[in-house]
Amino acid sequence: MPIYHKQGNIPPKRHTQFRRPDGELYSEQLFGTIGFDGMSSLLYHHNRPTMVKDIIKSTDVSPKIAMEKHIRSLKLVSFKTEPKDDFLEAREPLLVNNDVHIGVAAPKLSMTEYFYKNADADEMLFIHKGSGVLRTIFGKIPFEYGDYLIIPRGVIYQIDFDSTENRIFYAESFTPIYTPKRYRNWFGQLLEHSPYCERDYKLPQDLETYTDMDEHLMKVKKQGVLHEMVYEGNPFDVVGWDGYNYPYGFSIHNFEPITGRIHQPPPVHQTFETSAFVICSFVPRLYDYHPKSIPAPYNHSNIDSDEVLYYVDGDFMSRNGVAPGNISLHPAGIPHGPHPGAVERSIGQQGSEELAVMIDTFKPLMVTENAMKLDDGDYYKSWLNS
Ligand SMILES: [Fe+2]
Predict the structure, then answer these.
(1) How far is the C-alpha of 252 from the C-alpha of 26, rounded, in Å?
(2) pTM of the full predicted structure?
(3) What are the residue boundaries of the Homogentisate 1,2-dioxygenase C-terminal domain, all occurrences included (predicted)?
């Protein structure tokens, strides 16, 4: 997040003496995700952040692959996944490769018994249903329907839900999730042609600081294994921090669509990027206004990327028979395009109320056993005339 932000109390000069009311030094921690080279923050802990007391359990949570190599378009009915009480147990990885794990979760309960951090992956949580507060060592981020929550790897967090009705579409990215570079100037400021600007971000606020020395359970995901560790002292013991590396939120409803006289290509919907995939937002917008325009997209041969679409709301104009919570996978190697009738249907229409999140990966995705349980079976034939 290339915006300088701070919360709480910090010393006027970095790496200098900064003392607690009882005279002891606070513990300073540099927190970055690209060695000492990328964006980072400096945090000041009441206690040492290194006090591991015990490692009590390690559980393999790596995805189980059902189809490693394939060329079948899929439609997954993700709302068929059973809601589960626990935030982590509710996660169902569906489409995965070495760069990203894409999945859904329907957690019912807030995370109160433990703290969590993903040591491997930046997390993108897209909130389809539910609301609450993401509580982190950097502060709180209230969230609601339509929010993307971007959580850099290593951020310790808990999540509070307002109700038990929650649906999340998520991506765990093994390279950092950034805003698109072409929308930033050489200082990192978002440019005038960017579909959103700095005012649209939900930055961490209301820093929580607890100084108890009780034992606390921490679950750390690393290399596909969930390690359960006991820490001495409360992980939320930060009295202040500043810098550029921290979690934030952004609402899909604040994405300003880019439109034109003729059909605009998918990159106009791009919202985030990594070195291995992009995340795009399809939002309600006016259609193309050339008198002979065709608002539906042309067929395109995605020979080099897999396309995942998560349908959120509204009628998706280029597809037949998709509903909220459906996920389509259009794999690399074969072209895809509008469904039969969709091109003619789109002509003369003024606009769309469609809302969807798209992830295009540059390497093929494998299909998990979880995904096969949601597969509708014959979506790949849905471009035939009858
Ligand atoms: Fe496409």
Answers:
(1) 39
(2) 0.97
(3) 276-383
Span from the CA of 294 to the centroid of ligand 1 (angstroms): 16
Cα of 359 from ligand 1 centre, angstroms = 10
State the distance from the centre of ligand 1 to the C-alpha of 266, rounded, in angstroms. 7
Residues of the chain with pLDDT under 50: none
In this structure, the dihedral spanned by the alpha carbons of residues 10, 15, 21 and 23, taken in order and rounded to 10 degrees, is -170
Is the Cβ–Cβ distance between 131 and 159 less than 8 Å?
no
Rounded to an integer, what distance in angstroms lies between the CA atom of residue 172 and that of residue 62?
12
Distance from the alpha carbon of residue 64 to the mean position of ligand 1, in angstroms: 27
Distance 150 CA to ligand 1 centre (A): 24
Distance 44 CA to ligand 1 centre (A): 46
What is the predicted pLDDT for the residue at 34?
A: 87
The alpha carbon of 336 and the centre of ligand 1 are apart by a number of angstroms equal to 6
Note the pLDDT tens digit of each residue in 89-139.
999 999 999 999 999 999 999 999 999 999 999 999 999 999 999 999 999
- Strands, sheet with 277-282, edge to edge from the N-terminal-most edge strand: 74-77, 326-330, 306-313, 355-361, 277-282, 270-273
Tell which residue, 300, 283, 302, has the closest CA to residue 351: 283
Give the tokens for residue 298.
């042309």
For residues 378 and 350, the answer to whether their CB atoms sit within 8 Å is no
Q: Which residue has the tokens 């606070």?
A: 26
CA–CA dist 68, 204 (Å, integer): 39
Q: pLDDT value at position 320?
A: 79
Residue 315, pLDDT score? 81
